[in-house]
Amino acid sequence: MPRRSVLPLVMLLLATALPALAQDKGGITGRVTDKRTGHAIPFATVTLLGARRGGLTDSEGQFQISGLTPGSYDVRIQFLGYKTVDHTGVIVSAGKPAVLDIRLEDVVVHEEKMVEVSAERRLVEVRQGATIRGTNAAEIRNLSVATVNDVLQRQAGISSDADQIHVRGGRSDETVFVVNGVANRDLVTGQSTAGQLNARSVSEVNVATGAYDVRYGNAL
Length: 220
Hints:
Blueprint: H1 2-23, E1 26-34, E2 45-49, E3 53-56, E4 62-68, E5 71-78, E6 85-92, E7 98-104, E8 132-136, H2 137-141, H3 148-152, E9 158-161, E10 164-167, E11 177-179, E12 182-184, E13 204-208
Parallel strand pairs: 1-7
Antiparallel strand pairs: 1-4, 2-3, 2-5, 5-6, 8-13, 9-10, 11-12
């Protein structure tokens, strides 16, 4: 009879000891956000230095590390593209988690200074023998054009037929397109596809209709 009464007593003592043991532990909770925008930072690494404990923030930037022995802890928060933040001396008490509000500052790897170069072009170049008319990118943006051919057709003396450019009534194979100093021309047909380039992708379009120098040979 006495042996039967001992077993329930032992089980009762163990059942009451487990909640008491859980109350002796503490934890650290908090939220990690961007310092500039205030947006949550998910998957940031939270590490307890020297304790080999840690975790990751969730989609809301929140984290929780539980089951810690009461004491002082050093917490490190890291995320790619942000400065590392260390919180030293975080006090963990039994039965009550320590709450941290972490704001990470983004890292600017290298910031280039903007240099703007501007110049004025004369309306008429007296030392230039060629007849050249130009259209820059700013002017092209204000035109209802899609291709370089559309830009050229707005120049005097230029017409288009079957997507081919004719200058002053000449044939399409008598016209040379030069893109960044390189002639764009089919050696067999003499025609070019450069006129189909997107007008928004060029910085300037220049048209020379006569008296140009010898580097623009084989063109009338």
